[in-house]
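User: Please fill in residues for this 102-position structure.
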């Protein structure tokens, strides 16, 4: 049996007017998806504005990953429901994509 069943949301990355990531807006979106019964989450996919995000350690991408897992763990603890997360690993820059794997 596959662990990937049901509907998964490809999460957007909300931005502020100055072009910075709206981390609080992102957190609210993750919580909303979980509260509405989504079966899984896909952060940093092709709909997540990944070409515009910083990929360095401690970066915007790292903060997005941290937020997703904080919210999923809290939801799982509260409900007992397991929520799969599929992280996007693509990049428009091959060197950066490979560096993320090392």
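Assistant: Residues filled in for all 102 positions:
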């Amino acid at each position: 049996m596959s662990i990937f069943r049901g509907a998964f949301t490809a999460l957007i990355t909300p931005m502020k007017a100055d072009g910075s990531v709206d981390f609080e807006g992102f957190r609210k979106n993750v919580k909303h998806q979980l509260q509405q019964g989504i079966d899984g989450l896909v952060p940093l996919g092709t709909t997540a504005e990944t070409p515009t995000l910083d990929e360095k350690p401690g970066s915007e991408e790292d903060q997005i990953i941290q937020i997703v897992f904080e919210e999923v763990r809290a939801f799982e603890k509260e409900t007992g429901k397991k929520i799969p997360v599929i992280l996007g690993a693509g990049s428009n820059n091959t060197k950066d994509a490979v560096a993320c794997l090392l």
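For context: DSSP finds three helices and two strands in the chain.
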